[in-house]
Specification:
The chain is of the alpha+beta class. It folds into 2 domains: 3-256, 2-Layer Sandwich (Beta Polymerase, domain 2); 263-319. Helix content is 59%, strand content 16%. It has helices at residues 19-26, 42-52, 56-63, 119-128, 137-170, 177-198, 201-208, 221-284, 296-319; strands at 3-8, 11-15, 31-38, 70-73, 78-88, 93-103, 107-112. It has a 7-stranded mixed β-sheet with strand order 2-1-3-7-6-5-4, with helices on both faces. A hairpin with a 3-residue loop joins β6 and β7 (107-112). The model has no long low-confidence stretch (mean pLDDT 87). Keywords: Cell membrane, Membrane, Transmembrane, Transmembrane helix, Transport. One of its GO terms (molecular function) is cobalt ion transmembrane transporter activity. One of its GO terms (cellular component) is plasma membrane. It is a multi-pass membrane protein.
Amino acid sequence: MAGSRLYRHGVLEAEGFPLHDAAGYLRQPDAVVWLDLCGPSQEELTALAEELGLHELAVEDALHPHERPKLHEYDTHCFLSAYAVRLDERTGRLATAELAAFLTERALVTVRPDDSFDVDALTRRWDGAAHLAKSGVAFLAHGLLDAVVDSHFEAVQALDEQIEALEDAVFADHPDHRAVQRRALDLRKSLVTLRRVVLPMREVVNALMRRDRSVVDETMFPYYQDVYDHVMRATEWTESLREMVATIRETQLNIQGNRLNLIMKKVTGWAAIIAVPTAITGFYGQNVPYPGSGEPWGFWVSSAAIVVLSAGLYALFKRRDWL
């Protein structure tokens, strides 16, 4: 077990106690308990489920990884599944930290498959809002959701900065197209992953705020409303960034096409200029008599024609911006 806390009348009374003490605390009507299990075995979670009356389907979801973010309601508790995220700014890849939680009347049980979720940051968040602890499980669940949603918001903000840098790289004088393409694909994958974990959070937070569930009291309702607002902003921001990445990719392809057309235009212009001396020297290279054949003035006439016609074509193409 990674962590535990006991609140009584909104005051933190104990923490770091063993799992088997939680059952005794929960028999006291004024106690609110948080239990955190990191990588628990099926036997450990099943024993806790029997003690707290957790549904077997919820226990199964907590033990199986890669569940969709969701909130399921059972007779005695709610089951919550969510993901915190973190962006590696060097690679542009998004790392996820899976988290499951059981919300009973006076207990919050968090289950983590590994230690990728920062529990210390969660407890600091609770300590920073200790004046709300009288709301019990609603207070604990708010801190948990706020930490998760804040990670989404930080990730989408970091992705926005990465995409702005990608735009600058696309319009650079000498862009590395392979690096830009690889970066765009990495950011697109991260946005797909972020969208997959952010969008369902609207339903999760909205469901907790429903009056008929009686999970959120009047004191905590504005704070949940604030979390819901952050979820909506992160969702809209994620959608706009996905469109921006697609637009950047299309812009990169258009720029590459335009540069290729410009190169082909210049190559064609130079080919036309080179064709003039080729044509004249080819004409004078015929094995038949022609004006100036075998005479010095014939050489000078052909040379003058090459210079004049080539210079004329160069001036014409330059004026029309073909070179």
